[in-house]
């Protein structure tokens, strides 16, 4: 799954990695982003509007859902294209969530040891997401997950779907709606580019948010 991540790269670094024209904006470094918060995303607000980097709520509940409908933070790649709850967003409202890495917890001797997973070259990671207008009119999103690959499988059975550079533009193309076509143009980041290390259990508390959280324990 993906339930906590960090985003501390400055805007110029993200813009360069994305290779798309976006207006600069200041981003506050965040080392402990938890669900139920506003997060940075890249998306087309509608088919005819330019690409933007703005904030979406990390919690997906489409505007047509009932009050007690679930508000998932993740959607699995196995079901996102066919589930009644997600398939509309998968076809029309895909987004990218930039991150520098994410956290997972490994059971060790009766406790859970947090690990930080990131690219070995420390470049930003682009996580595949879907978004929808929520009942309150604001955008909300879910991050896609897939079975864990490479060293990530040492920590958890699932991981966020991190896309390679050539998949970024097709993923957020609002005119690309066919399920099979999307599957063929969206490729995950090669597993060998991911590394990880144990970090302090201080990350367990969302209120802790500073660079020391990603320092190897």
TrEMBL record:
Record keywords: Covalent protein-DNA linkage, DNA damage, DNA-binding, Hydrolase, Lyase, Protease
EC number: 3.4.-.-
SUPFAM superfamilies noted in UniProt: BB1717-like
Family matches, as Pfam families: SRAP
UniProt-listed GO biological process terms: protein-DNA covalent cross-linking repair; proteolysis
Record GO terms (molecular function): lyase activity; peptidase activity; single-stranded DNA binding
Gene3D superfamilies documented for this protein: SOS response associated peptidase-like
Family in the record: Belongs to the SOS response-associated peptidase family.
Name this polypeptide is given: Abasic site processing protein
């Amino acid at each position: 799954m993906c339930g906590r991540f960090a985003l501390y790269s400055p805007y110029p670094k993200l813009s360069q990695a994305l290779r798309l024209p976006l207006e600069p904006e200041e981003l506050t470094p965040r080392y402990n982003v938890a669900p139920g918060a506003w997060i940075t995303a890249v998306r087309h607000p509608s088919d005819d509007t330019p690409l933007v980097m703005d904030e979406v709520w990390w919690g997906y509940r489409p505007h047509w859902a009932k009050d007690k409908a679930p508000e998932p933070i993740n959607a699995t790649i196995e079901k996102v294209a066919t589930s009644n709850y997600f398939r509309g967003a998968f076809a029309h409202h895909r987004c990218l969530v930039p991150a520098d890495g994410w956290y997972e917890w490994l059971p060790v001797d009766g406790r859970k040891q947090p690990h930080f997973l990131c690219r070995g070259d420390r470049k930003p990671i682009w996580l595949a997401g879907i978004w929808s207008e929520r009942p309150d009119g604001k955008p909300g999103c879910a991050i896609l997950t897939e079975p864990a690959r490479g060293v990530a499988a040492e920590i958890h059975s699932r991981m966020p779907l991190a896309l390679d550079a050539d998949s970024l533009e097709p993923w957020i193309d609002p005119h690309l709606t066919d399920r099979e076509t999307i599957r063929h143009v969206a490729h995950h980041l090669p597993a060998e580019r991911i590394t990880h290390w144990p970090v302090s259990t201080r990350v367990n508390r969302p209120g802790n948010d500073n660079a020391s959280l990603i320092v190897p324990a």
